[in-house]
Design goal:
alpha+beta; 1 helix; 10 strands; rod-shaped; MEGF10/SREC1/2-like
Length: 179
């Protein structure tokens, strides 16, 4: 809800006093008549609430003058300018997450248009991943598997070579004995 208001402070009664914050918690006001002015929906002004606010990025404008009094999310300032670098949202008060490219953080809703930096996930890239990149895990697995297969293959060749040497050696000794 948006509006203009008046705050009354009352210290005249003996049983009330304002704390150091200069705000009085027990101020009462009896009104005989109260008039509330405003348009039933934002973005318009005028007597019949039929004139659009002059700035298209303005959420609320003054009912009589049309002067912007609050920007739409993604905009800030008196002229409702787009949020500055790495900020977004209502009055640009939110900080963008861990986007791969912070210039690609959407100024209205904070979504990372180019994805998250390594180690983060989610639409806003604000959630820290508690797992290592699966590609790195798979690469380590395949390297280990390759080394294991290479060792087994090398052992197989060595054993085959030894068997062949022994067989050829025993065949020579049998030939020599038969001659």
């Amino acid at each position: 809800m948006h509006g203009q208001y008046v705050i009354y402070y009352n210290e005249r009664l003996s049983w009330t006093s304002c704390p150091n914050t200069s705000r009085c918690h027990y101020a009462y006001n009896d009104l005989c008549e109260l008039e509330v002015y405003g348009c039933p929906f934002p973005g318009v002004y005028g007597v019949s609430c039929s004139i659009p606010c002059p700035d298209p990025n303005c959420r609320y404008c003054h009912i009589e003058t049309g002067t912007c009094q609050g920007c739409k999310p993604g905009y800030q300032g008196h002229r409702c300018e787009e949020c500055e670098f790495a900020t977004y949202g209502d009055q640009c008060k939110e900080t963008c997450g861990q986007c791969q490219d912070l210039t690609k953080c959407h100024y209205k809703n904070g979504t990372c248009l180019t994805g998250c930096k390594a180690g983060y996930h989610g639409v806003l890239c604000k959630t820290l991943s508690n797992r290592v990149d699966s590609c790195t895990d798979q690469l380590g697995f395949y390297i280990t598997l390759g080394l294991l297969c290479g060792c087994l293959l090398l052992n197989g060749f060595c054993i085959a070579y030894i068997v062949i040497l022994r067989q050829s050696g025993s065949q020579r000794s049998q030939k020599n004995q038969s001659e």
